[in-house]
Amino acid sequence: MSHILSWLTFFPLIGAVVIAFMPSRMDSLVKWVAAATMAVPLVLAAQLLGMFDQSSTAFQLVEQYDWISSFNIQYHLGVDGLSILMVLLTALISFLAIFASWNIKKMVKGYFIMLMLLHVGMMGCFLALDFFLFFVFWEVMLIPMYFLIGIWGGEKKEYAAIKFFLYTMFGGVFMLIGMLALYFFSADANGGVSTFNFLELAKVDWSQFKVAIFGSQFAVDKLVWWFLFLGFAVKVPVWPFHTWLPWAHVQAPTAVSIILAGVLLKLGTYGFLRVNYQLLPDATLAFKYALVILGVIGVIYGAFCALAQKDLKKLVAYSSVSHMGYVLVGMAVLTPAGIQGAVLQMFNHGLSAAMMFMLVGVLYDRLHHRYIVTPEGKLGFGGIAQKAPWITAIWMVAVFAGMGLPGLNGFISEALIFLGSFPVYRTETVIMSIGIVLGAAYLLWMVQRVFLGPFTTLHKDTSTGALHAAHEIQEITGRELIVLAPLGALCLWVGVYPQPFINLMKNTLNQLIEVVK
Amino acid sequence: MLAGLSTNLGLYLGLSAVFFAFGVLTVLTRKNAVGLFMGVELMLNGAALNFVAFQTFRPGTHDSWLHGHVFSLFIIILAAIEAAVALAIVLRVFAARRTIDPDRATELRG
Amino acid sequence: MQLVDFFTLLFMLMGVVSAVLVAFHPNVLYAAVALVFSLLSVAGLYGVLGADFLAAVQLIIYVGGIIVVILFAIMMSENIYRARFRDAAGKFVIPTAVAALLIAGFLKLFHDAKLETRAGLNAIPTTEQMGRALVGPYALVFQYVAIVLLAGLIGAVVVARPHHGNPESEAEKK
Amino acid sequence: MEQSNLITYAILIPLLPLAAYFIQSAVGTRLPRMGDWVSTGAIFLSFLLATQIFSAMWGAHDPSWVVAKSWTWVDLGSAGLPVKFDIGVRLDNLSAVMLLMVTLCATLIHLFSTGYMRDHHGHPADGYRYASFFSYLSLFTAAMLGLVISDNLLTLFMCWEVMGLCSYLLIGFYRHKHSAANASIKAFMTTRVGDTGLFLGMLALFALIGSFQFEEIYKALQDGIFTDPKNSLLGFSAAAMIGFLIFCGTVGKSAQFPLQVWLPDAMEGPTPVSALIHAATMVAAGVYLIIRVFPILDVGNVLPIVAGIGGFTALFAAILAIKQNDIKKVLAYSTLSQLGYMVLALGVGNFTASFFHLITHAVFKACLFMCSGSVIYAMHHEQDMRHMGGLAKKIPFTFWSMFIATLAIAGAPFFSGFLSKDMILASVLGYGQHHGGLSWLLVVSGFVTAGLTAFYMFRLVFMTFFGHPHDHHHYDEAHEGGWNMWFPLVTLAGLSLWVVYTGHVNPFQAQGWFTQLIQPPKLPILAESVKEYAEFEHHGHVPAMIASLVVATLGIFFSWLVFGAKKIPAAKLAGIWPNFVHKAIDNLYFFDWFYIKVAIQKGLMPFAKFWTIVDDKVVDRGMVDGLGDVANVAKGTINLIDDVVVDRTFVDGFGGGIPSALGSSLKVLQNGQVQRYLSVAVVALMLLFFFLRGVLF
Amino acid sequence: MRSLFYVSPPLLLSFFSVFVLIAGLWIRNHAFLVGTSLLGLGGTAGLYLSMIGKPAQDAFAGMLIFDHFGLFFSVFSVLVIALGVIVSARSREIKEDRRSEYYSILLALCTGLIFMGISNHLLMAYLAVETVSILSYTLAGFNRERNVSVEASMKYVVYGSMASAIMVYGISLLFGVTGELEMTGLREFFAKTPADQLPHLTWIAVLLIFAGMGYKISAAPMHMWTPDVYEGAPTPVSAMFSVAPKAAGFALLVRFLVTAFTQPIEGSMEALATGIPVSQASFNLVGNFNWPLFLMASSGLTMFMGNLAALSQVSIKRILAYSSIAHAGYMLMGISTQSTAGIYAILFYVMVYCFMNIGAFWIASKVDDVMGGDHLKHFRGLVSRKPFYAISMAVFLFSLVGIPPFAGFMGKLYLFRAVIGREMYFFGLIAAINSVISLYYYMKIVKAMFFDAPEVEMPAGKTAFDSRLTMTFIALLVIPNIMFGLFTDPLMALISEAARIFTGS
Questions:
Q1: CB D536 within 8 A of CB D348
Q2: Which of residues 131-170 of D touch A (CB under 8 A)?
Q3: For a FRET experiment, which of A337, A402, D294, E186 has its CA 20 to 30 Å from that of E342?
Q4: Nearest to B107 among E148, E166, E180 (CB)
């Protein structure tokens, strides 16, 4: 199939248009149309996997056309070992998100259109080989995300939405400036023609350029590295740019949290690898230690914050901060194990965090609250295992995947990261290992308070807002299983036999290390 | 002692500066909208005087075109149009509010 | 000392004094009268500078037209004898300082500029030359100003004319 | 036998229970008998396969018999950059014996569970739970067996963690109980702390030699990589550091001081779980680990630390055991104490004795736990010994099995415990004699523990089976379980006889097939020290045997005096100790208090909460919103606060920060007076003029 | 005659202006007035289109100059006024009794705008600015039944007359120093006079002239009239004010500064023409006035003033007014880069800004008409009432923020390209921070429309919220906002012609 990457990216737009012209009373049909639409990228992604040559480190299935000639901007897509896993993840998560949003009642059409636009942005970001195109997709994601949180979110949705928007936009403008700086300096090294092409930019030797700001000389690549860093760090989110994340997660509807944790956060780390690493290797080498430090802080800090949370979703959100910290460390150590562990961790966290957010949604749908501890200091849940063993069992899979239990995916990637980082940054790794203990602590403590013990679960009356004791909890439904089962199965697969996934990326990533070093 | 006074460009310029400055002062301080326009007229006259003076005294000012004089002429014409419109508006303000104190017309603010 | 120098001095003094009065006289009506004098002084200086046509226009349009309109507007809009004309003196401080600074600054700039001047006063009558200029290079401007005048007056009329008894617009009045 | 067959068997051994786990968790509840036969059958098949391996090993009868095979599991490398993780199976004498022991104990405990986990009418109390109990057991067994056959630390660690998970799930099995939930999380977290040490050790190991495989480790040791000064970590040799870190794993898993706190609480789990996990297998896995990496510990001179911790734990736990009234708690502390013995044995260099005691202890402790389970079952889940008594007649199989096992643990001749414990004490004595000084403390600890063990174990037997029943209601109803409950007890009791482990009739002679086959790895670098350690045992052999017999007899005798014949009132015995001793023992030496109250509740949680507050108030609001607060305070003096505060109710975000405050001040500027606007413009223009003049001229 | 050909479009407009006025005395049919006005504008545009490709030419003895730059702005002015006519056509704020006058003034205003773009002589420029100003004063007060409208008008006239008086004073000083009023003549003068021989008087002269032009584009510090006037004026008028005079002001400012105070650098034009930006300046400064620095200061100030003040507003028109100030700041960046890339950027930005801003004002106008106000509370829950308007408004606002794939982003990108291309990183950073700040208040509107429940009851009897025609036109405004965000090449091809001020003159 020709132009498979374009189809992969833009096919949902067709569905969005179809949905836009459907009568608004046909809500259930809208959902099925959405599901059918999003199934196409999933199938295409599977097909892409078949077409992908693992042994090559080059970009494959490249599509390249002139787009904005006055800027020498191209429509340039391609996939390599770094992006292929993310593409698969995006296709999968986007598809599952449709089912996770089955019980949306308000403005159904708009909701699904927004989900599809979001898919376009995410997929495009992972596939773009032109910096400008990348940036456009990057920003395109903001708008659907803003609406998804702002319209269909929780009680403080506006605050969360604007916070998300402001933070990301803040990072985005820095990225824009960095991007333009690279663009201009590339002219001198590229035969007088400025370019946004990643491949061309990667060839430039940036060390020759200096820029004067307020009379001091700065190396261009070092300066730009930090600009780009800001752009991506907000998305990851790197401590201390993480504070939008708990808000966005807590207020977002379930499916959006799934996408947010599953795909969006990865865009930040993907950006580091794709842009900072490939384009500015010298600066990366110079500043990698900053990434390590921020990563370690993120791991520990996120874990501590998760430990003290009283809101289930917030806990999971902070766990994301913690888990993305590992990714930073892994990628910064520049060893095969570290960097592959980092990318695998991106994938794994996508699976397990998506699962956890879905499961939070499962509980929320039934009980209409998320208090581990209510504001009055009582347990909001408790003993759910007795009433809903299947929900509990799936929770356990997600929790254990999240805390890095062997046999599930989290272990592999975390172990790889640790193995990769220990020889390089010994002390930092040792400090980071506290995160393992804390990770187990906050998750298990949560499990204990939510699922074990006597059945004390409370139910929130949506009309009055009062909490009273729940009697029964409905077991997991088929629709929810559709979302959870593939994720769980993948968690197990990666945990037991990660080699196929590693094969996809290892050549590209090892070459990336060579590039940086 | 007064010899050459009429050919001293500096004096004309000084007077125009005075006109301009007091025009500004008038605009900034009058408590009457019409008074404001009087200030504007002063400023315009300062400028017009400059034009004529420069035309007369400065070399290289295209005498055949009389830039300065023509400009002054159009200043006067436009001042007339402006005055007509402005005073119409002021009267409308007075009709609406029974005052033309510009400080009281602060419904639009912030 | 020539006569023209004397008149120059006279007009200039008149200009300065009347400008001060325009700015500071508490009664706006007197200020308007002072404005007449400053305009007259400018007209006189035009005459000194040989801009005879301009001097005439200044007299006709400004003194004869604009000032009348201004006075008319003042009479119509303000109860001259009871209106509060001035704020507290505090409001004057900054503008006066600004004006002083402006005058000082301009004088310094003019002085520093050391603009060279043509020898002597080239005070030949310019009316004819003006006429040629207005139908020559300035023909377009001259024509165009007519359109502006027309449109401006239409606007003035629209804004100033009294209300029709339009019930809808009355209802919407806020 | 073909080696490849053996490898296949070895792989099948953990896979069978794993398959059972998946079957059980998927369809367990729909199978007949809730599928307990699936798990039991699977482990029984594993047992049969294990006997095959054992017989192959027996047939070879070679201390350095090894059958190994490995595969690449994860290959991260690409051309010119080899990074890979190999995993594989290693069958040697250690693993063959261990496999046999684990599969046997597990089979019997599965069998026992089919009775124990039902009520007295033979019904599983709660269908789901019965099936999942077996599924967890299967998963656990699979992990344990996988650990045993691992030829590398990586899979060992993975299985190790999965065991931890199963332990967590099974301790918390009675999930309606808060105490069970607390105990499970405590167990997991405590071991996780140790595991982190182990994990770090593995990281260091991998960084050093690029592999996790034992063979590679031994080879690297021989090559001197571990002792090379340029590889030293934090001023210690690599071997010392790595050895110590790996030993941390043991401290967690085998509940050694100072991470011993979880094991007694783990008794919240069902009794078969206690028998399998917290007596026979999982906790022993910690010892198995250090036995595997013994060369590193030896080369790195970590053994004195190991010995110290082992000896201390042994004594310290034994003292606690005396005052316990819960039958399972007594056994739990005794397990702690015995694990301490094993660690101590390894610490003084007696590789063989350590493993020997591991095996014998597994057998008799599994027996003891199941007996206690049988008692509890008979007493309708009453665990307090003070409510028992005189049960010997009601449940004879249980009584006799327990009696034999108790003799074994007390170190009475003719029983396995005597042999293994004697070897340990001999080594310790020899060690003490050789090193002198503080190492005598180890000797004292070893012998006192032996005496105390005899004392408290017989206290248990006397309180439970002799004397008068204290709870007639339960007593009257007490009865033996079905064959599936007494058969395992009897079998294990039978295996506690000396002859099983020596193969000859002299009950005082420990040398036999076991000691011949189980020998430290034959590494030249170890040869000298191994010889020295053998000397210790040889020297200490006879005096130790005599002394141990004496203390064991004394212990039993005192126990009889106090609890059997009641010649000395227990209260009087208790009264001779000062109050603080009681207080310390009652509070478990304040370890729980320290960890939970001080470290976690007073340290960790406030810290976490503090960071959350920091996150909310400083990082979030401080960096984004909070600057607005500062601006507010500043603006408050000029009466702007209202604007800003009102704005903040819906502004917050960036808007709530400086921008909004500035925006509000612009609002003041924009007061609607056109003259104000013009003044601003004129003044600003003048300022601009002067500013630019300043810049440019 | 050749000169007359070049002024034929404004002449045509003047004719229609008078015709509409006179015909309106008898024919009060609204559609007729709108149709006639559009006809006139269309004819004008047609005349202009026929001039494309003609070499640059001066006319009326150097009073005017016809080049593609001027042509661009002429067509643009016609376009904006046409949009203004369309927006006004259904507005309730333009009362029935003065419609013919209204359209007449609009057309006359358009001639002023056109002359602003093509004048080469400071007298012509002054006249054009005054024309636009004077007519704007009356337009601002057009809804004279509303006090705010009259008040706005009064503020506008006071501020405007003073600003133009300042400008005239500046021109007089410049005339005094150079003796020239033609811009091309000024360049010649500056080119032959060494900078150190020029008095500082030039400085203050240019500063004063800039103040006058800055008032038209509402650049700080001459910006403060803007919010009050936009809020008070009838919304369709504000819509035009925020675009047309501003664009014409930019045209004048660019032409004035670039023509009079710079010399083109050899080769830089050609480099640009091939689409490759250069990081050097395209123009050398002549004279002693470092206007780029001055514009940078003003630009930064303008952005902050506009964006910060907008944060706490509740009236949409006022928010948009402040936002238009901020946008003027962005555009000023373009000139201060002193490069053709910057001029490209301004032209492009002006174009897309027209579509997004008029769109936003139009919807504000519709909401004002139907809901009886333009405050945030009137916008709450708009999406549930009129999803089309809400979504269109969101597109306009996102475009104003500058988020891809909307046109506003491309506009900002071109500006940033110019700025970063000249290595003015700090300046770029300031603009970037500003666009983040601006996000906040734009999103406040989006939030009100989409996230909040309706607060104000729709006044009874005002169900005529929309017509298909209006919706179509709004959709036509939405389309360029997306199209120019994705495909800028066609527009840029046009602009690259238009931006070459120097060629041929």
A1: yes
A2: 132, 154, 157-162, 165, 168-169
A3: E186
A4: E148
Q: Do chains B and A touch (3 or more CB pairs under 8 A)?
A: no
Q: Are residues C120 and C66 in the same domain?
A: yes
Whether residue C156 sits in one domain with residue C110: no
Are residues C108 and C22 part of one domain?
A: yes
B46 touches chain E (CB under 8 A): yes
- pLDDT tens figures, E151-197: 899 999 999 999 999 999 999 999 998 888 888 888 888 888 888 88
Is residue E312 situated within a structural domain? yes
Query: What is the domain range of residue A439?
Result: 303-517
User: How far apart are the CA of A376 and the nearest CA of chain D, in angstroms?
Assistant: 17
Task: Tell whether E86 is covered by a domain.
Answer: no
Q: What pLDDT was estimated at residue D635?
A: 34
> Are both C112 and C144 inside the same structural domain?
no
Question: Is residue B102 within 8 angstroms of chain D, CB to CB?
Answer: yes
Chain D hits for E309, Cβ within 8 Å: 663, 666-667, 670
Task: Please check whether residue E100 touches C, CB under 8 A.
Answer: no
Judgement on whether residues C79 and C159 belong to the same structural domain of the protein: no
Same domain (yes/no): C69, C102: yes
What are the backbone angles phi and psi of residue A22, rounded to the nearest 5°? -85, 150
D652 to chain E, closest Cα gap in Å: 10
- Structural tokens at position A100: 């996770």
A122 falls in which pLDDT band (50, 70, 90)? very high
- Does 3.30.980.10 match the CATH number of domain B5-97? no
Q: Domain range for residue C38?
A: 3-137
Q: Does B86 touch chain D (CB under 8 A)?
A: no
Residues 50-109 of A with CB under 8 A from E: 67-72, 107
Count how many pairs of residues, chain B against chain D, have C-beta atoms within 8 Å. Answer: 29
A77-to-A123, A128, A186, A200, A486 alpha-carbon distances in Å: 10, 5, 20, 14, 28
> Å from B33 to nearest chain D CA?
10
DSSP state at residue A211? E
Q: What's the mean pLDDT in A209-218?
A: 76
Claim to verify: residue C130 and residue C148 sit in the same structural domain: no
Residue B56: closest C-alpha in chain E: E176
Domain that holds residue E385: 295-505
Average pLDDT in the C162-169 region? Answer: 52
Token pair of D394 as six digits: 């009601």
The structural domain count of chain E equals 1
Judged by DSSP in three states, A373 sits in strand
Number of domains, chain C: 2
Contact D660 E312 (CB under 8 A): yes
HSE-CB for E83 with a 13 A CA cutoff: 29
Is residue D332 within 8 Å of residue D267, measured between CB atoms?
A: yes
Structure-block tokens of residue D250: 């043991």
Name the pTM for this structure.
0.85
Element (H, E) at A75: strand A73-79
In the numeric block, the tokens 């996408």 are attached to A259
* Cβ count near C45 (within 10 Å): 29
- Residue A278 included in any domain: no
Write out residues 632-691 of D within 8 Å (CB-CB) of C: 679, 682-683, 686
Q: Would A58 be classed as within a structural domain?
A: yes
Does the distance separating the beta carbons of E220 and D651 come in below 8 Å?
A: no
| Check: complex ipTM more than 0.85 | no
- φ, ψ of residue D2 in degrees (nearest 5): -60, 135
Decide if pLDDT at E383 tops 80.
Answer: yes
Q: Quick check: is E121 in a domain? A: no
D669: nearest CA partner in chain B: B110
- Report yes or no: B27 at the D interface, CB cutoff 8 Å: yes
Confidence band, pLDDT 50/70/90 cuts, at residue E270: low
Residue A298 within any structural domain of the chain: no
Write down the mean pLDDT value for chain A: 87
| E215 in any annotated domain | no
